[in-house]
């Protein structure tokens, strides 16, 4: 099981990838003498070989060297500052679906597979991505939090089976799928109109996708369906659930997406949010709020609303 993490850190002339081992940051360009490894995207595009080389290096390295940098001195950016495509599954946690249905007096949905339904997705622009400890503008009058497990694609995938879908995952990170709830519908359009919904306004805005703090390799999380997700706002717990609540597993989501379109290294799949979002209670984020999303085996993603 790999014990390293992949990061993107700020350097004097821009950004640089890094391999974190025991609190020390190693430069993959210097270690492997490959300029393409200067970005996490470059590492992912060579993932079949890079994963083996990095894991082997991590297994033998011990302590710091004169060339390493302490992690706590680094300014971390999103591990993928500009991912390929960000695929976001909707209504994928049983507890979240039930809570929203109760809030709005809707009938409770059964397991969608019992009705022959597939998972459904929307997209977020890579321009929405910000890193850990980012200051995010208060983009709407109802800005909502959504802590999510994010799967990072490391191998090209087309028509992969559920049994082999996780082989395409390089690793996992944390996402906060921030949502501008008051922009979800166009008020001047009739409620029954199929053109009433605005997914661009709802989900795409500057700072709308905090991501990080690093990528944990997939072999360090052999079962992505048994890890806890917790979100707090100003220290107050809001979400406390587990990926066991997913209606469609990570593997099922990737298999379905790959049946529709080719997935490429650097694409990111946001796998759904559990109960405890603001839409369930009518609460929303305010100026000055501190949002923390914590996922077991990965870490914590902190976002400031400014």
Would you mind describing this structure in some detail?
The chain has 306 residues and is α+β, with helices and mostly antiparallel strands. It folds into two domains: 5-77, no CATH class; 86-305, Alpha-Beta Complex (Fumarylacetoacetate hydrolase, domain 2). It is 18% helix and 30% strand. It is built from seven helices and 19 strands. The strands form four sheets. It has a seven-stranded mixed β-sheet. A hairpin with a 3-residue loop joins strand 18 and strand 19. The longest helix is centred in the N-terminal third of the chain and has 14 residues, at 47-60. The radius of gyration is 19 Å and the shape is globular. The N and C termini lie far apart (39 Å). The mean pLDDT is 95.
- How far apart the termini lie comes to 39 Å
Query: Main beta sheet: strand number and arrangement?
Result: 7 strands, mixed
Structural class: alpha+beta
Taken as a percent bin, the fraction of beta residues is 25-35%
Q: Any idea what the shape is?
A: globular
Mean pLDDT: 95
> What is the annotated CATH architecture of the largest domain?
Alpha-Beta Complex
Number of domains: 2
For this structure, the CATH topology of the largest domain is Fumarylacetoacetate hydrolase, domain 2
Helix-strand pattern? EEEHHHEEEHEEEEEHEEHEEEHEEE
- Number of helices in the DSSP assignment: 7
The total count of strands amounts to 19
Strand order of the largest sheet: 7-6-17-11-12-14-8
Q: CATH homologous superfamily name of the largest domain?
A: Fumarylacetoacetase-like, C-terminal domain
* Rg: 19 Å
CATH C-level class of the largest domain is Alpha Beta
Low-confidence stretches: none
Question: Could you estimate the helical fraction of the residues in percent?
Answer: 10-25%
């Amino acid at each position: 099981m790999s014990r390293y993490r992949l990061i993107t850190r700020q350097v004097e002339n821009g950004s640089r990838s890094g391999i974190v081992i025991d609190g020390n940051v190693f430069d993959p360009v210097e270690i492997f003498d490959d300029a393409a490894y200067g970005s996490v995207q470059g590492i992912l595009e060579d993932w079949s070989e890079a994963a083996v080389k990095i894991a082997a290096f991590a297994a033998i390295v011990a302590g710091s060297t004169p060339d390493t940098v302490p992690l706590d001195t680094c300014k971390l950016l999103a591990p993928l500052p500009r991912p390929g495509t960000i695929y976001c599954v909707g209504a994928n946690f049983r507890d979240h679906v039930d809570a929203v249905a109760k809030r709005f007096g809707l009938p409770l949905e059964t397991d969608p597979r019992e009705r022959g339904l597939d998972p459904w997705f929307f997209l977020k622009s890579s321009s929405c991505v910000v890193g850990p400890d980012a200051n995010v503008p208060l983009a709407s009058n109802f800005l909502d939090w959504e802590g999510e497990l994010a799967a990072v694609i490391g191998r090209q995938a087309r028509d992969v089976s559920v049994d082999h879908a996780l082989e395409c995952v390089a690793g996992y990170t944390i996402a906060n799928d921030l949502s501008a709830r008051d922009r979800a519908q166009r008020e001047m359009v009739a409620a029954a109109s199929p053109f009433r919904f605005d997914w661009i306004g709802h989900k795409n805005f500057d700072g709308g996708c905090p991501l990080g703090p690093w990528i944990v390799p997939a072999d360090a999380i052999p079962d992505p369906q048994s890890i806890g997700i917790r979100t707090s706002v100003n220290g107050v717990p809001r979400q406390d659930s587990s990926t066991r609540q997913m209606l469609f597993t990570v593997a099922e989501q990737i298999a379905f997406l790959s049946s529709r379109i080719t997935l490429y290294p650097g694409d990111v799949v946001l796998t759904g949010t559990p109960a405890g979002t603001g839409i369930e209670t009518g609460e929303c984020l305010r100026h000055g709020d501190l949002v923390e999303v914590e996922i077991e085996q990965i870490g914590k993603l902190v976002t400031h609303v400014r």
